[in-house]
Amino acid sequence: MTTTTATATTTATTTITTAEHPSEHTSVNPRPYPSLPTGAKRLAFIGLGVMGGPMAAHLALAGHSVTVYNRTASKAEQWVSALSQKAPHSRLASASTPAQAAAGADMVFCCVGNDEDVRSVTLGEAGALAGMAAGAVLVDHTTASAQLARALYAQAQAQGVGFVDAPVSGGQAGAQNGQLTVMCGGDAAVFEQVAPVMACFARACTLMGESGSGQLTKMVNQICIAGLLQGLSEAVAFGQKAGLDMDAALAVIGQGAAQSWQLDHRGRTMARDEFNFGFAVDWMRKDLSLVLAEAARNGARLPVTALVDQFYADVQAQGGNRWDTSSLITRLR
Ligand SMILES: NC(=O)c1ccc[n+]([C@@H]2O[C@H](COP(=O)([O-])OP(=O)(O)OC[C@H]3O[C@@H](n4cnc5c(N)ncnc54)[C@H](OP(=O)(O)O)[C@@H]3O)[C@@H](O)[C@H]2O)c1
Question: 225: closest CA among 98, 312, 103, 145?
Fold first, then answer.
């Protein structure tokens, strides 16, 4: 296992939001960036959503040349316009297909929704792989299946291109602050090439093993979170019914063995029924379906995860598709 962390050598200090229309995909808080011994790279970034937009922005702010592609073209144009002002020394452009964005790039990064979306931007005549030359590397930051990662690895290898599956953890704030955790699968030599570039938007990039290992590690992450959030929901709902001051109760137990990131960051907001904090229930259900399909293949027993998946289906049924994942507590009201 290899972990790479960023060494800061240059610093940018501006905060970017589009002037009149603050937008999730161009909002980024610059941070110190590593400088590469081999200089700036020619990069492509496909998928400028809540996660991809700020990730690509960090690459531009770090001085790399970045050509972006987004299905909704206006978002790509808006991204180029916002970033051109803040990173005037970086060559920034948008392309009309993933293949065009990837043409001539040393590395191509992708962050779209699910397996099918990844296939549609990487494969076929207009897909990124069609534009990539031997020696280039494709990095997929989408949370997708390990099977797809292995298939793309094989397809890329057949044309002399490297492939790394690299799902992320850290949410929208992690993307905007350039503090994501990246879990990677692939070849060590290829990982070593791309890790210093990923360090522009990550606090840690770790190679977990062969192709698919990054996605499997992200599944482990989601299993932990699903069970933990149901436990935290029951704890908060119980405490409120018992008449406790939950701010005080969470502050006390957060000093002991019950402490967790979710308790620290979501406990009080759950108590107030506030569910507008990033990672959405629809995304969680997508991730849990990947987890449960993988468990059906490898024989792992996930009774609590399967139950929590159904609880999230209940939340969707009451209109909570875009609520954040702590909204599990609404079933207990
Ligand atoms: N949001 C989080 O907190 C978070 C945290 C960790 C991991 N993730 C994972 O990161 C990935 C992206 O999440 P996100 O929150 O950035 O999603 P998002 O805001 O919905 O953005 C999705 C991006 O993918 C593009 N896209 C989707 N389907 C496509 C297709 N078939 N062809 C071409 N482009 C397509 C969208 O283009 P349009 O603009 O045209 O729709 C958009 O740029 C997901 O796999 C998610 O599970 C998200």
Answer: 312
- What type of residue sits at position 144? A
Nearest protein Cα to ligand 1, atom 5: 171
> Mind listing the pLDDT tens digit for each residue in 81-95?
999 999 999 999 999
From CA 91, how far away is CA 223, in angstroms rounded?
40
Of 86, 218, 241, 286, the active-site residue reads 218
Whole-model pTM: value is 0.93
109 CA to centre of ligand 1 in angstroms: 13
Q: What is the domain partition of the chain in residue ranges? A: 2-210, 217-332
**203 in helix, strand or coil?**
strand
Among 3.40.50.2000, 3.40.30.110, 3.40.50.720, 3.40.50.970, name the CATH number for the domain at 2-210: 3.40.50.720
Q: Which fold has domain 217-332?
A: N-(1-d-carboxylethyl)-l-norvaline Dehydrogenase; domain 2 (1.10.1040)
Count Cβ atoms below 10 Å from residue 290 Cβ, excluding itself. 24
Which protein residues are within 6 Å of ligand 1, measured from CB?
47-52, 70-72, 75, 111-113, 117, 120-121, 142-143, 168-169, 171-172, 278-279, 283
218 catalytic? Reply is yes
User: Which pLDDT tens digit goes with each residue over 175-194?
Assistant: 999 999 999 999 999 999 99
**Whether pLDDT at 5 is above 60:** no
